[in-house]
Design brief:
With 404 residues, the protein is α/β, with parallel strands linked by helices. It has two domains: 238 residues, Peroxisomal Thiolase, Chain A, domain 1 (3-Layer(aba) Sandwich); 150 residues, Thiolase/Chalcone synthase (Peroxisomal Thiolase, Chain A, domain 1), CATH 3.40.47.10. Helix content is 36%, strand content 20%. Strands 5-4-6-7-1-8-14-13-9-10 form a ten-stranded mixed sheet, sandwiched between helices. Strand 13 and strand 14 form a beta hairpin. Helix 3 packs across helix 7 and helix 11 packs across helix 12. The relative contact order is 0.19.
Amino acid sequence: MRHRVVVTGVGVVSALGHNAAEFWQSLSAGRSGIATLESIDRNQLRFQNGAEVRGFDASKYFEPRDIDLLDRFSQFAVVSTREAVTDAGIEFTPELRERTAIVTGSCVGGQSTEDEGFVSLYRNNSPRGNPLTIPRVMANAGASRISVEYGIVGPAWTVSTACSSSNHAIGQAFRMVRNGDVDAAITGGSEAIFSMGFLKSWEAMRVVSSDTCRPFSKDRRGLILGEGGATLVLETLERAQARGAKIHAEIMGFGMSADAHHITQPLSNGAARAMRAALADGGLRPEQIGYINAHGTGTQANDATETAAIRGVFGEHANKLAVSSTKSMHGHTLGAAGAVEAVAAILAMEKGLLPPTANYTTPDPACDLDVIPNTARAADVEYAISNSFAFGGLNAVVAFRRWA
């Protein structure tokens, strides 16, 4: 038996705020969280800006012993999950603990912890490593901590598919609930990437903007890195309704594909296959989609390629579609991107207000879509999709329906 799957809880920690309300307030105002980097020595970098989670005090959320055990990316995963679970009003009974899955996404795991370990070993010549390095670094640390906090003993794992990690995680959780493998799922992703070694690696790729992120704008100069975490609570519709839960949205379909093309250069056909697969999985026609939260990184290659993919899938309807990249405000959160942007898409439908593509200046003929430039737009949208396209040519798309 196939079940309908609904989202009953959301939580976010991002450069736009430490909870979903703050996140939405910034999104709807078109207010960017991109600013001068504070947590790193900028003098060693060619780029100076990032979307950091500023003012995040771990001691407000964790005991000292837990701070020692959890890397920043895990902290984001747990804090956003606590908000989502509270929002859902869900009680994990002994039976539900066995019937709940945890599926998270992360691109690089405990990057800061790893960087600190290498500095200690290679620069400071320390003969001993931190005994907590491995549990802090492992990409599944967030998922594991969530299982401990809530006593969840059902399936729990982490997906790592670069920038598509969270969308792949949401898709797998959705399928498990839909297929009846579990009754509920906690899913999303988190990332904390502001360590010198990692930033220098991105610098070498020459895809990071020297100023800000301008997706789809002709004068775009590249992406802006961000950090954060977001979580969704998924349940079967019948379970949510039986307990009188507030429902944010319904997940209609999930699609994924591989480009089989190039490790870093995107291919429009691959992205298009994932979008078509998500629509087919949800039994949706292209003309039913009213909004796309685009991958929209702000690089020359991605934005033009994604535009071509959208036009290939939606045809003439692409002229009527509203498309925006919220990375223009919260930055590219890598493995957390799909989860952060899923919450953005869900709230946009729920609030009847589509977030803009911020920092937009000049139309690009290669990106000839309605990208909601700079100012949010009131709109009655019933169906939306959220795109994630990763290095390695790995694509994942989730389709949502507004809950009336």
